[in-house]
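sanity check this fold:
=====
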Amino acid sequence: MTARVRLGALISRSLREPLLQFLLAGAALLLAQHFIAPALSGTQSPATLIELPAAQLDSLRASYREAYGREPDVQQLRELAQRWVDDEILYREALALGLDRGDPIVRRELQQKMRFLLEDSTPLPEPSEAELAQYLQTHAQRYAQPPRYRFEQVYVSRERSAEGDVAARAARLQARLQTRPENPRGLGDPLPFTAPQNAQTASEIRRQYGSAVAQALETLPPGQWSAPVASGLGLHLLRLIAREPGRDATLDEVRARLRVDCRQAQREAANRKTLEALRQRYRVQLAPIS
């Protein structure tokens, strides 16, 4: 009880000290200025002011129009605005709680936005003809034209053959082609699609007929009919007319693709240069890498 009396007396004397009274009055004034004055004046601090600018309102209107194919009415626009305010409040509260820190998804989004900002700050001109030619020369293997095969075939359909008769029909046709190799017209069944007449790459043949047909044409001597080759469609008797060897691409053949790749390479180089400049602001310490 004596200790409480002494503590109360000490506090009472301290409160009568002019210096302490001055400090308390100053603190009260600052609190009033921060919390009470804005409420009385109708203003808000920047941290608590939520303003929906006209440009954002236009964006909400455009999003609604794109989603529903018509303009929102006034009530719908008000609801969109209130929903935007709700989202903004949640966003600010999440930042205040530090929810943006340590979240890999948020981290990736911010990194992506920074990359966009870097690209906007360093616009690149279209690559010149000389730059395209130089890029093609440096990466010739990437754009090399693969070998192409021009061939004809006699097709035996599984659907048009009696059960177990597909191989027998193909064998009879093969024997006939060996005696009259230059006259395949009218033999076999029609393909379920129109076969290309121009030379095709191995990948194109593989997509259309399967790997077995493509592999057979890679090793088949020109002018010679093959043994029956199976595919998902049926059996194929193949004759290679010509094999065009692979070669380097010309600038005109790959210009569109080359322009995209060259511009991307220039963008990556510009981004790397900017990142290297930004690195100078930081002291980087890496854990031992072994």
User: Anything to note?
Assistant: Residues 22-42 have pLDDT under 50 and may be disordered. The chain has four domains: 2-41, 54-121, 129-141+249-279, 146-244. The longest helix spans residues 255-279. The first strand starts at residue 148 and ends at 157.
